[in-house]
Amino acid sequence: MWSKNKYKLMKIINEKQLWGISITRFRIWKSFYVTLLIGSFMACDDFVEVDQPNNLLTSELVFEDVATINAVLRGIYADLRDGSLSDDLSVQLGLYTDELDYFNTQNTLFDHTIIASDGTVFSWWGGAYNLIYVANAVLESVENSTFITQENQDQFRGEALFIRGYVYSLLVELFGPVPYITNTNYIANTIVSRNDVNEVYDNIIKDLEEALELLDNDISGERIRPYKAVVEALLARVNLYAENWQDAEDMASNVIDSGVFALESNMDEVFLKEASGTIWQFIPPSVGENTSNAETFILFAKPTNVALYESFIDEFEFGDQRLASWVGSITDDGNTYYYAFKYKEKGITSISSGSNEDLISFEYPVVFRLAEQYLIRAEARAELNKIAGAQSDLNVVRNRAGLRNTMSSTTQELLDAILRERRVELFTEYGHRWFDLKRWFTLERPENAAEVLTPLKPNWKDTNVLFPVPESEILLNPNLLPQNDGYQ
């Protein structure tokens, strides 16, 4: 039951599919987001009786209330924090590369035996398009609204465009060509084809550039919702991946030169929720909770799931403070195991307040941080043959970790040094290592995915640089063909 005066009721449909996303998965999405909506709507005084929904919800949902749109956006951020595109990617893509060793019986990512019916790729694809659907619904609702102020319209539109761009930035790296959907027309979207990679990049950049014009740069609070610098940070990354070197340099410079952020000198404080280098982070589900990253990685005994490859430890130079602060170890039965220790709070945390214990979260999952922007700019400058600038940016990251200036002086030497620096700076963070190995493969640089993973992963094939489009989606929509190479 919804307020007759404030809300336009969506039409209810009973279709078998939406955008090629199966009913089962969409029901999961529907139950999550509609629960949020009902919580907002139940506060209304005026109610009308409506028919019971049969199956799926259509595009004509119009959110004409600020509180409701805020609730929906908070739901999206919660799903980005906890869903299939959360920092679970840190584990999944770490297993796919040379970051994480596996101590259980079998894992298709670790073994490189992914097939088109694999549940992981199914969840990535479906989870992403569910989020895109909601972002598109917000965009359409804001555009059609007569109740929301221009200031709120700009904020909501900017956030929704950023969300769509962010999700697509992950989709294109995982799957390559994907459909770039910008509306909630379920009939049209059941027969979409895939856009090529360059088209996807162009659309992401277009969305983000519009978001940049709409969002302000107010970073008061906990940096948990997008603002201008967050968009610039993503634009820097996307332009780097798209080989738009000058644009990548410019966007990273905007973030670095803003004067808002600073690298933490204490490596143990880089991932605290109030860290000065954090650009965007997710708030935990409840007070006292911290990160799933710590829950997954920190070891108290011999690993039964994942640990860092022992060979990864050799990547740290002598005196690198990141090794001491960000890598933990445990010895069991004479064997030493290493684990990612960037996030240090495992479980519920609290502080003493008189005779009471008050719950408090010390760490939030960090998505964008300043060190990445320096490394993005260093790589872009190296590609532009701006050697001194690239060296300077690389040295900022190295010096803060207690290392001397780089000795690299040519473009190729600098690119190699930047890749190594990215490996020890960004390990187990949202799949950076995999995306770098993949980029190096495409660019035919040394130390790329094939060179690194062939001796480590017996099942490695060059076609593994992309994951398969889920088989179930192709059955629903043959226009998604051709399947990525190696998965036919």
Automatic annotation (TrEMBL):
GO cellular component, one term: cell outer membrane
Organism annotation: Polaribacter vadi
Principal subcellular localisation of the protein: membrane
Family: Belongs to the SusD family.
UniProt keyword annotation of DNA-binding present: no
Domain SusD-like N-terminal: 105-240
Keyword Membrane applies: yes
InterPro entries linked to this entry: SusD-like_N, SusD_RagB_dom, TPR-like_helical_dom_sf
Coiled coil: 198-225
Any Pfam family: SusD_RagB
Cell compartments where the protein resides: Cell outer membrane
Keywords: Cell outer membrane, Coiled coil, Membrane, Signal
Taxonomy of the source species: Bacteria, Pseudomonadati, Bacteroidota, Flavobacteriia, Flavobacteriales
Chain ranges of the RagB/SusD domain: 329-487
Name used for this protein in its record: Glycan metabolism protein RagB
